[in-house]
Design brief:
The protein has helices at 2-18, 41-44, 422-425; strands at residues 60-72, 84-98, 102-108, 111-115, 123-137, 140-151, 183-197, 200-213, 224-237, 242-257, 261-279, 282-296, 299-300, 303-304, 308-322, 326-337, 346-358, 363-376, 388-401, 405-417, 429-444. It is mainly beta and 447 residues long. 38% of the residues are buried.
């Protein structure tokens, strides 16, 4: 119901904006608004950009193919470590187009992954993402993003390790990296903002996620998960540097598996936020407020379990700096989010870091890391036994040879301490080394 209300508000905001246009298709000048406001990170629904200033470009078509080989010392989880070498081939096509009011980025990278020892886990991969920004009027902006991955390993994402960092409480939680096993992961977001005065803005957004493991026996102890959330916010610009605001967010978080059953958590949160823009390339944000959660689970020996109801603080902060040769982003949050493979929604303390540097014209390096302490909500019989934490770090170095050929080396170390998740308990640490070669072409559009 609340999600519908959020989406209805989004439509009303857009309708109001279109109503400002006269029958001739021209928009009357507004004496109130002389400069477009920014959408602060705590309510934008988007991750901080990872492209360096020197890499930013638009209106191009890029296509090519990548070859990747990787070694992992913990391919299957379980009671004993099993190492394996994988080989992947991924054709890629990407369209980045800017028109008068719309910017569209579409990327599609299908692929095939073959395993040297565990041939039964060979997989046809699918990676698709779309990002659209449309200025419906001078004062109304619509954003929409969707990403889908179908694979046997989360490491097979084309941009894995790029260090996506979110500045808001709705950034999502992905604490679990499952062993090699086919899965589907989809995340979408749509948002609209309306600047109705010189220094005031309202907006609404909706987000959904879906995580599904095709063979639950291969990922014993993990659970499928879905979520739907909606939010509305009000933001004011006290000066060019200072933004203040308040937001309301509703979440519905569901986890289910054949062994654990189903757990559903609904949350209501009010966040007050502040963002500082010291320069056009730096932002610093904080948010905080009360959060109410209600968790319901299945029955124990035929007797329904009572719901677990609680009040918790929801707080967080983030920093982003984007330069021509270096960018960095960091975030921390203490809130309730989806379990990302655990048996229910989690009360999470999480932090993430991303750093990229263009060392020379043809040599670049990146570093990313994350930490999450996850306490599963609900009855200890179903949830608390799966509490634990995850720590991961990824480093890579890339070299460009000429206009089309590039080469990358990467290393990832992952530690997942969840003593009651069977597929992770005995061998919690994974090391992965990879090498990839890409051959790409780029063609400008509209020229």
């Amino acid at each position: 119901m609340l999600t519908r209300a959020c989406l209805t508000l989004a439509l009303l905001v857009a309708t109001t904006a279109w109503a400002q246009t006269d029958t001739n298709g021209t928009e009357p000048a507004s004496p109130l608004i002389d400069e477009t406001m920014l959408t602060p990170p705590p309510v934008s629904g988007q991750a901080y950009p990872t492209a360096l200033g020197s890499e930013e470009r638009s209106n191009y078509l890029r296509y090519g193919v990548s070859f990747n080989s990787a070694y992992t010392d913990n391919a299957l989880g379980g009671s004993t470590p099993v190492s394996d070498v994988s080989y992947s081939i991924s054709p890629t096509i990407a369209l980045d187009q800017t028109r008068s009011t719309m910017h569209t980025v579409l990327t599609y990278a299908p692929g095939f992954t073959f395993y040297q020892r565990i041939t039964s886990r060979d997989e046809a991969d699918q990676n698709l993402s779309i990002n659209v920004t449309d200025r419906l009027s001078p004062h109304v902006r619509l954003t929409a993003q969707d990403s889908l991955q179908k694979s046997s390993s989360v490491f097979n994402q084309p941009d894995y390790g790029s260090g996506g960092v979110s500045g808001g409480p709705g950034g999502g939680n992905s604490p679990i990296v499952a062993p090699i096993s086919p899965f589907l992961n989809n995340r979408g977001n749509v948002g609209v903002s309306y600047q109705f005065a010189a220094n005031a803005m309202v907006g609404a957004s909706g987000t959904f996620t879906n995580l599904h493991y095709y063979n639950s026996a291969e990922v014993s102890g993990l659970a499928d998960g879905t979520s739907q959330s909606g939010s509305v916010y009000y933001s004011i610009r006290a000066s060019k540097l200072h933004y203040f605001g308040v937001s309301y967010e509703y979440q519905r978080l569901v986890s289910s598996s054949s062994t654990i059953g189903e757990s559903e958590t609904q949350t209501h949160a009010i966040h007050f936020f502040y963002t500082l823009y010291p320069t056009s390339r730096i932002s610093i944000s904080v948010f905080g407020g009360p959060l109410h959660s209600n968790t319901s689970e299945g029955a124990l020996e035929g007797v329904p379990l009572p719901p677990a109801v609680a009040w918790n603080p929801s707080i967080g902060g983030s920093f982003s700096w984007q330069g021509n040769l270096t960018n960095a982003a960091f975030s921390y949050s203490h809130t309730i989010s989806g379990g990302g493979g655990l048996s229910g929604a989690v009360r999470s303390d999480s932090a993430s870091l991303s750093l990229r540097r263009q060392i020379t014209r043809s040599l670049g390096a990146s570093l990313s890391g994350s930490y999450a302490q996850n306490n599963v909500l609900g009855s200890p019989l179903f949830g608390g036994s799966n509490d634990g934490h995850s720590i991961s770090g990824t480093g890579s170095i890339s070299k460009q040879f000429g206009e089309h050929l590039s080469f990358q080396l990467g290393y990832t170390r992952l530690h997942q301490d969840y003593s009651n998740v069977a597929v992770l308990a005995a061998v919690p640490t994974t090391n992965r080394e990879s090498i990839s070669v890409s051959y790409t072409f780029s063609r400008p559009l509209g020229r």
